[in-house]
Inverse folding.
């Protein structure tokens, strides 16, 4: 017997409601991404527990370790040096965005970077960094003398940089005017010393100094209003 108009409308309303519900459930369950996903080029430490900071900020590394292990570097040839107008080297921001030491905060300055001898106690041994440097040179396609390149912490240990997170380390080529065979001659070190002094004297904010050095070490002091 034919359905009445009212019964017909009611049944189709029920079917439509079920369809909408099924679509909503499917939409919620699709497109999930891994919570800890990383860019294969970015070089998150193999086997480490390092975590990324919120988008737009510097990643946070695992911090000082009682025993360091050699960290996996980005694939060979995937990183590229950048240069300032006066030919000072800068790292690839994707491979080497910097990473901070979670033990160093505005509240712990006196017992960490502003305490004499702190960085010496957390620096990884050459037996670890030497192997990382060799691999990282391949990441950046550096073919110069290893003796003339510095395996540099982008955010130095004295500015609260992570000791062995590969996102904070890069093979830094020598600066212009370097004499081959003379070893590293990077003026970046002098910038780091001035930034640390300003932080410990209360003249510069820790986080802003870390951001400045990670962005461009050649403009870090001027961007913070400090004397170069």
């Amino acid at each position: 017997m034919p359905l009445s108009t009212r019964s017909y409308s009611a049944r189709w309303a029920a079917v439509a409601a079920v369809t909408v519900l099924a679509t909503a459930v499917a939409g919620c369950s699709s497109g999930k991404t891994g919570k800890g996903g990383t860019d294969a080029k970015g070089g998150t430490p193999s086997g480490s527990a390092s975590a990324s900071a919120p988008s737009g900020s510097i990643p946070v590394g695992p911090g000082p370790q009682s025993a360091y292990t050699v960290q996996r570097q980005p694939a060979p040839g995937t990183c590229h040096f950048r240069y300032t107008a006066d030919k000072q080297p800068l790292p690839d921001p994707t491979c080497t965005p910097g990473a901070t030491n979670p033990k160093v905060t505005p509240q712990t300055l006196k017992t960490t970077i502003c305490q004499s001898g702190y960085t010496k106690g957390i620096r990884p041994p050459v037996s670890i960094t030497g192997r990382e440097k060799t691999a990282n040179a391949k990441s950046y396609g550096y073919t110069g003398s290893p003796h003339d390149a510095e395996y540099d912490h982008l955010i130095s240990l004295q500015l609260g940089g992570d000791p062995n997170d590969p996102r904070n380390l890069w093979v830094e080529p020598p600066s212009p005017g370097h004499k081959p065979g003379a070893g590293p001659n990077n003026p970046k070190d002098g910038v780091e010393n001035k930034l640390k002094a300003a932080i410990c004297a209360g003249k510069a904010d820790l986080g802003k100094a870390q951001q400045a050095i990670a962005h461009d070490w050649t403009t870090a002091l001027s961007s913070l209003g400090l004397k170069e």
In short: Residues 182 and 200 are 32 Å apart (CA to CA). The longest strand covers residues 150-153. DSSP finds six helices and four strands in the chain. Residues 1-55 have pLDDT under 50 and may be disordered.
